[in-house]
């Protein structure tokens, strides 16, 4: 029984991995696996019944193994067949820097761009003509997806034309929305003042925050109690071997609604020196234990387990003045781990604060209990990072 069940799970795993590689947007592997496992279990039971009555086999482990392998094979074949049958073809209306990133990330063929001759295009993307030829271009190339990226497009394109395309089954989407789906972050380059003032999606949802506060406080308190011996041991080592000075450092950071709080962490440098790490501090940093005292901030309500990374108060004021949408990241509590930190893990390029705020705004917009679970799961059991849809990775600050 165990051998047969293990073979079935392995077969479902292979089917899930093969299918997840064909998706446009980055989806957590465990969500894909659960979907495939539920579907495959149903197919397995049907095949189980067929094999029992047709072959008159009564050995359950053999049936489980054969049913699992056949079910996963059928699922894999169907996903590959449906992907080939879809044959999605993208048509771009207008072109700029956002369209260039989107075009590079789309894994399906890009038919070309409809834009005036004055708009420069990169090599490899054909220009199909100006907007006055749009009807003939649609009839000739028959796209399955239309991406609109042009300011004031309604002055150059009849809305009835795009509506007719939607009614015939063509997906019509704006480049910023497709940017979110492909990269998992909000396109700040296309945020308008109306989006910041009128959209509730870019502000923290009160119901989501209320649910988050419950499990955050319980989880934070449980972690603090479980890790209290380790925290006390590290504090004792810092006090004994790091020279004179406090065991904990505190930094003034901007929290929820810009309310300041003192962020706690272990001291890793010598007091009054040039910032050199002590021997104990080097090991604490190497083992990623510097921020363990932040569990006290979680229990006190200053922070959450999952959320945007905390920012020092003076930097928060500067960035808010430079980027007005930056203040929206303070509509939720900062967290020890977050969506932006998850995507910045392993990058060694120059920090890009704009990319980080895009991830933070996406978390605020799409935040839920399931997203928090996904972020915690990826931090505890990290899966190999896939290059989703040919995504061009950009640097961001951790």
List keywords for this structure.
single chain; 398 residues; alpha/beta; Rossmann fold; 3 domains; three-stranded antiparallel beta sheet; 15 helices; disordered C terminus
How would you characterize the overall build of this protein?
The protein is an alpha/beta fold and 398 residues long. It has 3 domains: 2-86, no CATH class; 90-183, 3-Layer(aba) Sandwich (Rossmann fold); 206-390, no CATH class. The protein has 15 helices and 10 strands. The chain has helices spanning 2-20, 29-55, 60-86, 97-105, 134-141, 159-167, 175-183, 193-198, 206-241, 279-286, 294-300, 313-322, 339-344, 353-366, 369-380, and strands at 90-93, 110-114, 127-129, 145-148, 171-174, 248-254, 260-266, 304-306, 311-312, 335-337. Helix 2 packs across helix 3 (60-86) and helix 4 crosses helix 7 (175-183). The radius of gyration is 26 Å and the shape is flat. The two termini are 46 Å apart. Residues 20-27 and 385-398 have low confidence and may be disordered.
């Amino acid at each position: 029984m165990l051998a047969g069940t293990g073979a079935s799970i392995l077969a479902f795993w292979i089917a899930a991995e093969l299918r997840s590689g064909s998706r446009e947007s980055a989806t957590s592997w465990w969500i894909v696996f659960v979907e495939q496992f539920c579907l495959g279990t149903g197919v397995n039971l049907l095949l189980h019944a067929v094999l029992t009555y047709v072959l008159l086999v009564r050995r359950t482990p053999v049936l489980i193994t054969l049913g699992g392998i056949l079910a996963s094979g059928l699922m894999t074949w169907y996903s590959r067949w449906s992907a080939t049958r879809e044959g999605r073809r993208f048509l771009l209306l207008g072109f700029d820097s956002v369209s260039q990133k989107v075009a590079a990330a789309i894994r399906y063929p890009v038919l070309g761009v409809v834009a005036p001759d004055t708009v420069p295009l990169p090599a490899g993307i054909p220009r199909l003509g100006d907007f006055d030829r749009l009807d003939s271009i649609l009839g000739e190339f028959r796209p399955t997806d239309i991406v609109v990226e042009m300011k004031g497009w309604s002055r150059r394109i009849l809305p009835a034309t795009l509506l007719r395309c939607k009614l015939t089954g063509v997906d019509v989407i704006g480049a910023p929305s497709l940017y979110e789906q492909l990269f998992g972050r909000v396109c700040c380059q296309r945020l308008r003042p109306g989006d910041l003032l009128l959209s509730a999606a870019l502000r923290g949802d009160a119901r989501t925050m209320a649910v988050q506060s419950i499990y955050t406080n319980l989880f934070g308190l449980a972690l603090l109690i479980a890790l209290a011996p380790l925290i006390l041991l590290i504090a004792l080592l810092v006090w004994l071997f790091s020279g004179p000075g406090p065991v904990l450092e505190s930094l003034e950071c901007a929290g929820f609604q810009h309310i300041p709080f003192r962020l706690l962490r272990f001291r890793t440098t010598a007091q009054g020196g040039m910032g050199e790490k002590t021997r104990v501090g080097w090991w604490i940093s190497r083992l990623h234990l510097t921020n363990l005292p932040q569990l006290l901030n979680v229990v006190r309500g200053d922070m959450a387990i999952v959320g945007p990374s905390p920012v020092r108060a003076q930097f928060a004021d500067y960035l808010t003045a430079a980027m007005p949408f930056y203040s929206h990241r303070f509509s939720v509590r900062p967290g020890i781990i977050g969506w932006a930190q998850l995507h910045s893990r392993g990058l060694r390029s120059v920090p890009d604060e704009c990319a980080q705020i895009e991830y933070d705004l996406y978390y605020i917009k799409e935040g839920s209990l399931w997203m928090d679970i996904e972020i915690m799961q990826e931090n505890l059991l990290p899966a190999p990072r896939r290059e989703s849809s040919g995504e061009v990775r950009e640097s961001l600050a951790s």
